[in-house]
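General statements about sequence and structure are easier to judge against a single worked case. For one protein, we set the task of working out the structure tokens from the amino acid sequence alone. The sequence in question and its structure tokens are set out directly beneath this paragraph.
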Amino acid sequence: MKKKILILSNHFITLYNFRKELIQRLNDEGHEVYISMPKADDNKFFSDMGCEIIETPVDRRGINPVRDFGLILNYIKIMKEVKPDIIFSYTIKPNIYGSIASNITKNKQVNNITGTGATFLKRNFVSEVAKILYKLSVKRSYKVFFQNSGDKDLFIENGMIKDNYAMVPGSGVNLEQFQFSELPSYDEINFIFIGRVMELKGIDQYLETARVVKEEYPNTNFYIAGFIEEDKFKPLIEEYDSKGIIKYIGFQKEIKSWIEKCHCTILPSHGGEGVPNVLLESAAMGRVCIASKINGSKDVIDDGVTGYLFEAGSAEDLTYKVKSFIRLSHEDKKKMGLAGRSKVEKDFDRQIVINRYLAEISKV
């Protein structure tokens, strides 16, 4: 049966990168799809697909219930006008404020906890406010999807969830878009960091590792792909780039070609990830992954089999794991990459995630 589906998002690019296959499937099956997200030129991609776009301002920074009260009112207005059969939401504000609104309008909402960012890495005023807001919102929502068991356990231990949850394998990876490709066979060994350049993502450890490893192995290259989120890193990135320690390539809308020319992807995040898509996409292409031992990354990497895990925040341990990878024979590097591809085919195919959403739709 044709259903009305409302999607709450804080940005076009996250929907495009991780949900476009789901949205296409919903349209193909004849459902009416409404998307609430901030104004952007790229939104036309989804309207051309057949979706109705409801432009909704979302301040992506910080959690301030007083300042964000207008977003709750906007969501209530949208829900009353659309009268959706089911609502899907992603990221913290659409999850929290959308759930508060849907609890008021009596709509069924499925939240996806795509990671918690820095919110719960330290106990402080922000984390305590977030706990209260989650208890007022997603705890009372229809269903909550978690991407890793660490986040699920955190929500249960802090009373932010009831028994209204289920697990999904992250956002999954499009195995046709990110196809396996052979490791580069040239003498240089290339590493890449993909993500926002900020302390939380472990850029300090990546830069220190690059500095130490380049001294011993000058035939290595360390790429950085992503916006510089925190200004304090601009002079450091410029200095390291000018000295040839790293190669800063900025944000890349098309990242596949860069993953393809590298042997290994490094994600030194300090925490707050869901299931990192950069690891899924890299593993799908047969690239070895090295990541910090945090929730989400531990789900993707089998330590010593598909890649390496290191102690979060430790440049020394990251350096040790990078050197361990370099010392592997080319055949052993290829074997690791193949094992990574095999794991994501089995556990992280995006079709698995799409089918979970379709199952929820069939119940309403």
